[in-house]
Amino acid sequence: MATIVVFGGTGYTGGNVVREAVSRGHQVVSVSRSEPEEPVEGVRYETGGAEEVAGRVVPGADAVVAALSPRGDMSGRLVEVYRGLAQQAAEAGARYVQVGGFSSLRPAPGAPRFVEGDIPEQFRDEALEGEATRVLLAEEAPQGLDWVFVSPAGGYGAWAAGERTGSFRVGNDVALFDADGGSNISGADFAAAILDEIERPAHHRAHIGVAY
Ligand SMILES: NC(=O)c1ccc[n+]([C@@H]2O[C@H](COP(=O)([O-])OP(=O)(O)OC[C@H]3O[C@@H](n4cnc5c(N)ncnc54)[C@H](OP(=O)(O)O)[C@@H]3O)[C@@H](O)[C@H]2O)c1
Q1: What are the angstrom distances between the C-alpha of 124 and each of 101, 182, 210?
Q2: 165: number of Cβ within 10 Å
Q3: How confident is the model at residue 91 (pLDDT cuts 50, 70, 90)?
Q4: What distance in angstroms lies between residue 76's CA and the mean position of ligand 1's atoms?
């Protein structure tokens, strides 16, 4: 059993991670500024901003999952907040899993990342900020921090929650597409991939993608 701290544990991604982690018997701490609307039994909910709460919940953690979103008043703030969380995770010796976006992936090995091309305007700011959080880890991660940056499929999101299938693929920084050219992953399966990586670390200081 591990102690897992999920920043954004009341959100779409974090909520699925919290549920998956509890169902696997882990000790789970969720951090968010608002109280959960539907608390998950067995989860310790800490209410407050990530920066204020981190100092009391990250020490002693085995894994830290960063699943905030750069929306609303968090727009433009994610890199700064994640820099602090990565530092705290390094000091705690905790594995650090940071959730990013699909557009940080590449269409083919060595090709420019999707975010370097044309991104629809409604996704552009979030894509650029997500990419900046990847660069933060790739270029400035604290020495010794065991991090993994996880990109979901392109069709991932609260608007397409889907179902748990227990069957998915984990790739590197090249996007995975199914036989029909689709790029999808349910919230529950994405969370399962994150828990698999926490329980059996297979990627270190690396960018991975999860899709069907
Ligand atoms: N297809 C894609 O590429 C795709 C699709 C969806 C999401 N994503 C990425 O996945 C990540 C998570 O997105 P999501 O949609 O799951 O997010 P979400 O549902 O908006 O959840 C965000 C969570 O973070 C919490 N939060 C935000 N700011 C906080 C702060 N300063 N301190 C503490 N908690 C804070 C929120 O609760 P409070 O507001 O109460 O604090 C909430 O629990 C993002 O990086 C997003 O870009 C990628």
Answers
A1: 11, 21, 21
A2: 12
A3: very high
A4: 13
The Cα 65–Cα 97 span in angstroms is 5
pLDDT tens figures, 118-148? 999 999 999 999 999 999 999 999 999 999 9
Q: Whole-angstrom Cα distance, residue 34 to residue 93?
A: 28
**139 contacts: CB under 8 Å, gap ≥ 6:** none
Max distance between CA atoms of the chain, in angstroms, equals 47
CA distance 91 to 39: 29
* DSSP strands (E only) in the chain: 3-7, 27-32, 43-47, 63-66, 95-99, 147-152, 169-171, 206-211
Q: What is the pLDDT of residues 67-88, one digit of tens each?
A: 999 999 999 999 999 999 999 9
Task: Provide the β-strand partners of residue 30.
Answer: 6, 45
For the chain, the structural domain boundaries read 3-211
Q: Whose CA is nearest to atom 5 of ligand 1?
A: 157
Q: Cα(12) to centroid of ligand 1, in Å?
A: 7
Domain 3-211, CATH 3.40.50.300 — does that match? no
Instruction: Report the alpha-carbon distance of residue 119 to residue 128 in Å, rounded.
Output: 9
Nearest residue CA, atom 34 of ligand 1?
32
- In whole angstroms, what is the distance from residue 8 CA to residue 47 CA? 10
CA atoms within 13 A on the CB side of 86: 27
